[in-house]
Amino acid sequence: MSRILDRVTLAASLLAPHVALDWTMPRRVGGSLISVARIGTLSEALIQGVDGLGDTGDPCSGLSAWSRVRAEHHDPFPIRFWGHTRLIDAAAWAALRQAVHHRLLVQAQAHVLLSRRPLEEVLSGLKLTNARSARQSVALLTGRDCKAEDLPGLIADLHRPPARGAGRTVRQS
């Protein structure tokens, strides 16, 4: 089990720089800034930044992220990063978005491994930004060429059992 978890975590780390959600521009709601991104048909992710107004001792200031359902369904990819960082600058927002993407990739792989159900609907908001590099990452992990053009295909290739008697077929670039 730990080998599978290691592989899932490594795959998520290698793929996270090559995926993105379509985050809205942060909008002010009261004393906080909120940005939202649709994960899929069932849920969305939110990042909230609360400005402590110079009070470093304020326990409510900083960035948090979580997911919520969009309809009367369950949340297929729950995310909870309460009090992720006290920083609220652009770099902290980017780092938290990357942490959300990583968590979604870990959960998407678990979804495929445990249910063998497709990801197209439940993870349609997470898009590849660099398919070629993502395919190379999958090829590094699997030892096989990957031809998938989308994220669900990449994750399916990543966890597809090797063909019997198949050797390594990764092309050298």
Task: Describe this entry's structure for a reader.
- The structure is a single chain.
- Helix 3 packs parallel to helix 4.
- By secondary structure, the chain is α+β, with helices and mostly antiparallel strands.
- It is built from 4 helices and 7 strands.
- The mean pLDDT is 84.
- The protein is elongated.
- The strands form 2 sheets. A 5-stranded antiparallel beta sheet has the order 2-3-4-5-6, with helices on one face. The protein has a two-stranded antiparallel ribbon with strand order 1-7.
Task: Tell me briefly what this model is.
Helices cover 35% and strands 21% of the residues. With 173 residues, the chain is an alpha+beta fold.
Low-confidence stretches: none
Question: What would the principal axes of the Cα set say about the shape?
Answer: elongated
- The run of helices and strands is HEEEEEEHEHH
**Rg (CA only):** 18 Å
Overall residue-averaged pLDDT value: 84
Q: State the share of residues found in helices, binned by percent.
A: 25-40%
Overall structural class, as computed from helix and strand content, comes to alpha+beta
Helix count, DSSP H or I runs of 4 or more residues? 4
The major pleated sheet works out as: 5 strands, antiparallel
For the termini, the CA-CA separation is 33 Å
* Main β-sheet, spatial strand arrangement: 2-3-4-5-6
> How many runs of DSSP E, i.e. beta strands?
7
Strand coverage percent: 15-25%
